[in-house]
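Narrative summary of target 7.
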Amino acid sequence: MRLKIAGTVNDSIVDGPGIRFTVFTQGCPHKCRGCHNPGTHDPEGGEWADTDELLKKIQGNPLLDGVTFSGGEPFCQAEALWELGRQIRSLGLNIVTYTGYTFEQLYRDREKNHFGKLLEVTDFLVDGPFILEEKDWEIKFRGSRNQRYIDCQASLREGRAVEVEP
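Modeled conformation, tokenized:
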């Protein structure tokens, strides 16, 4: 399957716990003011990547603790990321997904656009748009205070956002 990406990072330590392979998806409808990845907004930008090739790169790094789907907006390509995520989880790696949507929006619309599928393979969700006025350098793995670090699997079981400390 193909995925439109802005790029990847092979060994990030800022996109979730531990050492992570990060996939920056291309295309974002939120266009948050002050976004640190404005080059990912245009859905026509970036390049096409084959998910099998991405999986090979992930498998080639034995030091990884997990994989992060960032953006852009990962939920704009939820089906392809779900397919990739299933394979990543079979390797025993965890998945962190960043989104400008809230968990409540994604949960409500989980039957649409494969949102529910991507939530099913996401271990931790960082949700909410980046708000420049709430920017905070002190919070772990988030850019602004409104964003939450959510245990996605517990949230799906309970039908509400279950926040945890990263």
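The chain is about 25% helix and 25% strand.
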